[in-house]
Design brief:
GO biological process, one term: carbohydrate phosphorylation
GO cellular component, one term: Golgi apparatus
GO molecular function: calcium ion binding; UDP-N-acetylglucosamine-lysosomal-enzyme N-acetylglucosaminephosphotransferase activity
Distance between the termini: 51 Å
Protein name: EF-hand domain-containing protein
Strand content: 5-15%
Domain EF-hand: 101-137
Order of helices and strands: HHHHHHHEEHHH
Length: 232
């Protein structure tokens, strides 16, 4: 009976390229989630993988089912997720677009920089720190009240005037707020954007993109003379 040539697909009538097809499959999933871009293929070499980031990637909703299917197969398939390609573009593009990842970063910042006593809400002093982040520097009482009106419209800010013995007059403001939580702060677009910007500024760089002139990668064949030229 007429068969197919070795390396040909009986269904598609073309050479099987499981690696290339898996790259296309993986790129399609990423593009559908974060947008189409020109993406390059990582070198076929050992790579260091951050296990925590890989766990997040494998639980990322747009790709979760594809990972499960990949791990269930005994042999390579064109429908597999390409491991290195998926990981690098998760770090470079998809992680930042993942709401869960951004939320986790905001929660860490909230606990470390704002909710200093760890009670889950921010008090008067902590609220002033929030106002300073929104303002981008030192704040006045007016700035505090302005942020309060956005974050907690039902809150109250009371001015207190005190005359010092030397005749100087000092005005202070006390802020009485309902339980201001992270969710409440994020409902105000102004404070939400300020927090996201600050988190991004504080975050360590996830990657650098080197010039192609700094990268040397050669495919070595079985032609000795050609290989010698490449190595020279």
């Amino acid at each position: 009976a007429g068969g197919t040539r070795p390396g040909r697909s009986a269904v598609r009538g073309r050479r099987l390229d499981t690696y290339g097809d898996s790259l296309v499959k993986t790129n399609t999933i990423i593009s559908s989630a974060v947008g189409r871009r020109n993406r390059k293929v990582p070198a076929h070499m050992p790579h260091m993988i951050d296990r925590e980031e890989m766990e997040k990637l494998q639980n990322w909703e747009p790709m979760r089912e594809a990972w499960q299917q990949t791990s269930s197969r005994r042999f390579r398939s064109p429908e597999d997720v390409q491991y290195a390609f998926a990981f690098f573009y998760w770090v470079m593009e998809a992680a930042a677009a993942s709401g869960g990842t951004q939320r986790a970063a905001l929660e860490r910042f909230w606990a470390r920089e704002l909710d200093s006593n760890g009670d889950g809400v921010i008090d008067t002093n902590e609220f002033r720190t929030l106002a300073a982040i929104v303002k981008g520097g030192a704040v006045s009482d007016f700035d505090v009240m302005e942020v309060l009106s956005c974050v907690a419209p039902s809150g109250n800010a009371t001015r207190h005037t005190v005359q010092l013995p030397n005749g100087a007059v000092v005005e202070t403001v006390s802020v009485e707020t309902p339980a201001v939580t992270l969710d409440g702060v994020l409902k105000c677009s102004r404070t939400a954007e300020a927090l996201k910007r600050k988190v991004k500024e504080r975050a360590p760089p996830t990657h650098t993109i080197a010039s192609e002139a700094e990268v040397a990668f050669e495919m070595i064949g079985d032609d000795f003379n050609r290989t010698q030229e490449q190595l020279d």
